[in-house]
Write a structure and sequence with these properties.
zinc-finger; alpha+beta; metal-binding; 3CxxC-type domain-containing protein; two-stranded antiparallel ribbon; globular; zinc ion binding; zinc
């Protein structure tokens, strides 16, 4: 009798945290006398603040058979979380290759440290001008390739679409 082996489909990560970027975030926080440590445990229950925003970066497709040369994105979804004891982390969502749909982890630019430090400063009461992204987008955000949209943590999809839908139904007396 032969044993039939069942193989579990290995789930690829759909986001990462970047603790090595903490030094860059720390430098920006020190300007305003703030000192945070990076919190390695990504826990959405014990955090005291959470905020969804986006950053910029580059992606490379690692599928050897794919003809994609990679892509840049001005809308990489991230979730910044603050925890008790001056700790924080940021979940950075992946995007899928438009050619072969393989998940890709972003290569971050300076916008990561800028956005995370900005949010932590806002939560600590530092008065600042609102941030703006620089540069022009080369096209519309494609929700079907964005893991942040699928998880409901991207301003282009997920929770935002759900909220708009709920508001629309509310105004029509449906909720």
């Amino acid at each position: 009798m032969t044993q039939r082996r069942t193989q579990r489909k290995t789930q690829r990560p759909r986001w990462s945290m970047f603790p090595l970027m903490h030094e860059n975030v720390s430098r920006l926080l020190e300007v305003d006398g703030l000192h945070f440590t990076f919190h390695d445990l990504d826990d959405d229950v014990s955090c005291v603040q959470t905020y969804d925003t986006s950053i910029m970066g580059r992606f490379s497709c690692h599928n050897q058979k794919c003809r994609s040369n990679g892509w840049t994105s001005k809308k990489i979804a991230i979730t910044v979380r603050m925890y008790e004891g001056e700790r924080y982390n940021a979940r950075v969502y992946y995007q899928r290759c438009k050619v072969c749909t393989l998940l890709s982890k972003p290569i971050l630019d300076d916008s990561y440290a800028d956005r995370v430090a900005y949010r932590l400063k806002k939560w600590r009461g530092v008065v600042m001008e609102p941030q703006k992204f620089s540069g022009e987008s080369k096209g519309p955000h494609q929700k079907e390739f964005c893991e942040g949209c699928k998880a409901g943590h991207c301003s282009e999809g997920g929770r935002m679409d759900e909220l708009v839908g709920n508001l629309s139904r509310l105004s029509m007396g449906g909720i």
